[in-house]
Queue: 3 jobs
Job 1
Amino acid sequence: MYFLDSPSTRPRFPCTPDPPTTWDAMILSVLSDLDNDSFRYRLNRMIMRGKQSGIYFANETHYRIFYRGSKQLRQDRPYLLSVVYLLSSCKKLWSKVCSDKLPSEIIFDDRSIGKVTANDYTIYSFAKDLHTGSRHISVTDMADILLIPDKQFALICNAITIHSFGTVALDFMPDKA
């Protein structure tokens, strides 16, 4: 089972009358129904350990790039929010894929990223999955703590939530990272 059932670059909104009122509730509304006990255990553990009240950022640079980009994307291309969120979490990926500027479109060319760490390649692959509908990372992969460390797991879960809720997710941006 994969996160995206069909290729789509547009956000998918959950079928709820009102969006959840907390970030954790948003994450759970999107991901808790996945049919994998190990994944649900890991997701619940991430939520219980989490100390953030909104979107998780890897560092201050990640926050600044995404904050700047989200202002423009909110109006023009909200479907790119989750991809920009993931790619901007790694400065090296961001500079290789987006050349330090907010792109009008993102073209995923595996040759352009050069040598990156396994963790960075996981982030790149999942951003590609969200944007193109490809299927590089499965729920089973996500459940494996040896394959995807906790930091990358949190980033990917946040990106899926941003992808699902679109601009509504931006209401949960912290004032500071």
Job 2
Amino acid sequence: MEDNKNILERWFEFREEELESGLTKEDKNYMYDFERCTNTILEIVNGEIYNSVRKELDKLEEQILRSMEHFNKKYYIAGFMDALEMLLKI
């Protein structure tokens, strides 16, 4: 089982790189523009707290992206393993 997980991990990394380089116009429509959102918020922030707000927004973006990556990876691998299991039962 551990060998299967390692194979799936490598496959996931390969697919992730491949998918990122081949985004369609439709895919790009679903991407959230963190930079635009950050800039909009920072335009109304007082100079004294600007840097701390910027830092928190950067951390928020990183946490959201890590969370998305974690759950995408988790469900992609689970679905792939389910498909393999079904094929092996045929």
Job 3
Amino acid sequence: MGKAFLGLKALLESEYEFVPELVMEYVMYSLIKLRLETTDRLGIRTQEPLSCQRDYVVEALRGAYPDEREYSDDGEDLVRLSWREELERIEDLHYYENTYFWDFDFMLLDSLTEDELMDSPVSGYLGIENIGDGGGKFMLPPEWLE
């Protein structure tokens, strides 16, 4: 499990995007869920302004998102959120659980090990690929494992 935490740390500190391993997604989701349960139970707010580079983030969002929500031509469907709403999604941990994971395949790790999952027919059905052996899998620097 130590490798999962080190990989998660590397993912969070990385300047580049990479596909996290299922166990890293599982750990991150579990930490977010635990934090949300704790804050809800204690009545603590989950929205916190970004502490560093907030001006940079706001400027980037203003350039990428409209000032007001955009709807489809018939006015029925929401097309894009405003930059303020996107900022709220970044600053509020409640949004993370449902917006920062593109699927929930990692939840299968509740009942299977990662190896069992990769060897099962379910992995092919869900499109879970074993990206090991250097084929796109993030490799921890050897010095981290010493």
